[in-house]
Amino acid sequence: MGEGTGASGRTVVADDADIERVVVSDEEISAKIDELARQVAADYADVDSVLLVCVLKGAVMFMADFARALGRHGRPVELEFMAVSSYGQRTTSSGVVRILKDLDRDIAGRHVLVVEDIVDSGLTLNWLLKYLASRSAATVEVVALVRKPEAVKVDVKVRYIGFDIANEFVVGYGLDYAERYRELPYIGVLRPAVYSRG
Predict the structure, then answer these.
(1) Domain named Phosphoribosyltransferase: which ranges (predicted)?
(2) How many domains does the chain fold into?
């Protein structure tokens, strides 16, 4: 079992033996999502609808909870999904982006809000924002649950940020290592021994 202090300073215990410590608890995630949704609902009060673009697979947990929170704050949303790859089985972004699943609709004239699980190097997100802008969206903004300021390699404008965390390899709440740990309800640091085995 891992144990650590969450962003609020409370001691939290990790349920998984592969987790060194929890950095953001499920309670903190829930509270932050509500806060972000309230802010987004206010900022987009004058538009008909917001098109949320989820970056699969990592952002799917965040997208689901964030969309529901926006609904509770009276903001109608539509959902769209993209899948891009720049990691493979690695623990850091390669910066080479492949589209695995493109948008299913035209976004010209739409107010797009990209829903990201994590911003680390910023390389993938930077590419994605340029790609979406080329599709003639009215606006393109980003909401990210977590950001690693120390890992940023390119300056990417992220309008809404949940948590800034240290440059450690984290999993949980959609974040994975080799497709594992996405189902954990919190975000925790993966023990280095796990990804240095192979």
Answers:
(1) 28-177
(2) 1
Range of the structural domain that residue 46 is part of: 26-172
Sort 17 into a burial class: Cβ within 10 Å, 0-12 / 13-18 / 19+. exposed
- Based on the residue annotation, tell me whether 176 is a catalytic residue of this protein: no
Taking the CB of residue 66, how many other CB atoms lie within 10 A of it?
26
Q: Give the CB-side neighbour count of residue 142, counting CA atoms within 13 A.
A: 25
pTM comes to 0.85
**Residue 187 placed within a domain:** no
Whole-angstrom CA distances from 106 to 80, 124, 138, 159 are 10, 21, 12, 23
Looking up residue 152, the CATH number of its domain turns out to be 3.40.50.2020
Give the span between the Cα atoms of 29 and 186, in whole angstroms.
7
Q: Which residues contact 102 (CB under 8 A, 6 or more apart)?
A: 82
In a domain, 195, yes or no: no
Tell me which of 16, 65, 117, 120 is the catalytic residue.
Answer: 120
Give per-residue pLDDT as tens, 151-174: 888 889 999 999 999 999 999 999
